[in-house]
Design brief:
There is one protein chain. The chain is of the alpha/beta class and about 210 residues long. The protein has one domain (about 20-210): Ribonuclease H-like superfamily/Ribonuclease H (Nucleotidyltransferase, domain 5). The protein has five helices and six strands. The protein has a six-stranded mixed sheet with strand order 1-4-3-2-5-6, sandwiched between helices. The longest helix is centred in the middle third of the chain and has 23 residues, at about 75-95.
Length: about 210
Amino acid sequence: MGRRSPLARAPRPALRGHRQVHFDDTVKAVGRTPIVLATDASVTADKVGTGYLATTGETGLRAHVYPRYLTTPRVRVVVTELRSVYWGLRRIFAAHPGRLVEVRVDNLDALTLLHEWQNGGDRMPDGYETRLRSQGRRPSLVKLQMYAEYTPGLTFVHEKAHVGNPLNEAADSLAKLGLRSLNGRVPVTEIPRLVPLWASGALAEYRRGRERG
């Protein structure tokens, strides 16, 4: 099963204001081995959202303003896709250390970087700044790079988007929900109700598909 990732630690769930939305939750699991984690991102000109859902029930979303000048639109997408992987893995490593984890990613550029990192590479998306953040914190993609390189039993596979896979569709919906809340289209107070509702429905559909297949 391998040793625990050196960066795994417990999450701190929160719900914040309209420049940043952040919510994590846990719903009923559908299976134990291996863990399947679906992640996705949603990106506009100046805002980004991430969503994730694992078969062990960990789920969540984040959305925040992303200044246009920092990266090109394509790089912004890749960075956000990778951040969704980071937030999902961070929850799983804290709750289920040493378990096998399969991460399903629908962005091929992000998947290429994850595979490079597993093989010891250190290339980052163009323009991504790797200097320490406030209070000496490592950037999220640097921590994800370390997850990929040093965590045994961790695999990254391609999941084709928008073909009806319930885990991928839920991750996509959660990322978009974060953006809609950030834009004021969905009240922030609705997120604690909607996230577990959507996640539970997707996991129930995933379970039924496994039983039929």
